[in-house]
Model the fold of this input.
Amino acid sequence: MSKKVISILLSAAMLVAIFCVGFGALSASADDNVTYYFLAPDNYFKTEAGASNTNVGYYFWEAGGNGAWPGQAATPAPEVHPNAFKISVPNNDNVATIIFNAFVDAGNEGDPNHDELAKVAHQTANINVEDEDYDGYIYVLAQDAAHTSTNDLSGAVTSSGNWFKLDEFKTSYNYGTYGFADAANTPDTPNPSNPSTKKYAAGDIVTVTYNVKDLAGLGAANSIISYNKDVLAVDDSAFEFRGNKRWYEAGKVAVTLAINDTDAGIEIGLNPSDPEYGAEAKDESTIVTIQFKALKDFDEDDANIQLTTDKLIDLTTGTPNDITADADKYLFLNVAWPTPRELPTSSTSSTASTSSTVTSSTATSSTAASSTTSSDPKGTNDKASSTTSGGKSTTSTSTTAASSTTPTVQTAGTFAVISLVVILMAAAGVVIYTRKKTEE
Done:
């Protein structure tokens, strides 16, 4: 009798434990979502700024996606910013790429009202969320020419940007392109009672060189050196001499300074076109030298010096070979920063200029990993995705998603163990009681 009771109770205990663990696993799976934020420009959702509706949409297409384009409406997140929206999506491989949009389907060229709808069908480039953990991060566009293109199929203006932590995005270059009143891109005002804590001072000189290396068959290249025009200005006197005179005199290099209301950049075009000049690229060679003068006190991040390459042709094999995807191996910037000044909080300051290297940002930012695929219903062609701003924000990793599910599993497991102990104690009690009755 007692053995039978014990067997029944042990079976019950095992079922309870399995149920509890299974329930915990289901709970963990249900809660295993990630939250992404998006800082929407006014013309995405404010009708007074030209938007067609007050929603911001988000779309992903893997494994059925979240409906037809333009997807679903995001949730406003005024606790982060008046223009912020948030979404919660499964944290799995089914959501590898996300597109935020103005919740407008412009259709395709030739469709009724296509041209008018395309004017308000703003969208982001394909944003890759598979390679890094951006749970709790906010995606902020860089609304300048280097990050903006027009979708070939829909005609919608397409912009790219970067991921930032919630406590950092307001100090980024990207944020400054939105034109908000609190953007941190206004000149520093000297105040003797509150000295600037920036590493470099207004009037300092920053020297940037554009270099090519390890490419014996350089045929052609197009690059842009972008920078924050509110912090740096090209030193006109230094701009007259721009590097390799031999290349300039032979017409093998062209440099153009492009500045408008929202951005600034130096466009560089290389066209060696023959082995004599292209062979010089087999060793590291400085092609262009630019000097900037600081307009205000600043740090490296404030200057936001970046290199973007959208064309690189190799003639080593004798025929043109597009190796743009590997541009960062062959084209790079050297930045010589001025001598850091001695700040009030530091006892000793370095007396030597510092230098750093900036490689081509092609295929390095979070959006650069995204490309046009046959599964993209809108044919998003991220022409601007090879540019990165505020690069440090794309390398940080959050562990929120992983840790958020752990307590649920642990709690369920603990409950299962406790249940098993209680049932075993009850079984022991029944056995003792049964033996006692038998003896009587």
In short: The first helix runs from residue 2 to 31.
